[in-house]
Structure formats: structure tokens, C-alpha cells
Amino acid sequence: MLGVCGYIPYKMGPAVAAVQVVAADLLSWIAAAFCMELQRQLKRGLAAGYVDLEENSQHLKGRLMVTKHLQYNATDKSRAYCSFNERTPAIPLNFVFLKPW
Length: 101
What we know:
The protein is an alpha+beta fold. It has a 3-stranded antiparallel β-sheet. The protein has 5 helices and 3 strands. It starts with a helix and ends with a helix.
């Protein structure tokens, strides 16, 4: 599940070697590796990523979108239609950790 999110590369390492696979089936082995990786990520804390936003605001943030600015603000000169990146914890990886309300 963590590999599907694209933020945690799944790799065979010393943590996976610590799992005893002698008497366990493959599903138990994968579940144990997943739990160890999930525990490491929880200790690290919530991850954050950047999302692209567009906004018609009174302050110029990021890049001015000229065509949309002229479309929405032809008469209102106090506003600017901007495109910018914002750092947010609302990324797919955190939905594994937290239940969204």
C-alpha cells in the first residue's frame, strides 16, 4: 500500500531480513514487512508535499496567469489571478496514516 502511494520505494533490506519466514507464508511475510515500514514512517512523522493552486486574490503569489487574469479581472484592478505551489500534508501517503473525516 505504501509503495502504491509512490512516496516509499519498496526494497529488500536489513529490516526485511529480520522477518522470520521459515514457517510463515508469503502473505504473513509481506504483512510483517509492511508493518515495519509503516512503523518507520510513523516515527518520522507526517509527510508533506506540494500541490499546484490557482487563486484570484488581492496579493500576487507565484506566477501571474495573464489570460485568466484578463478574463476574471478586466474591471477590477486590485485583484490578481495567480498560480503557485503550496506545501500541504494532504497527500495520498498521509491517507494511509490518518482517517479523513
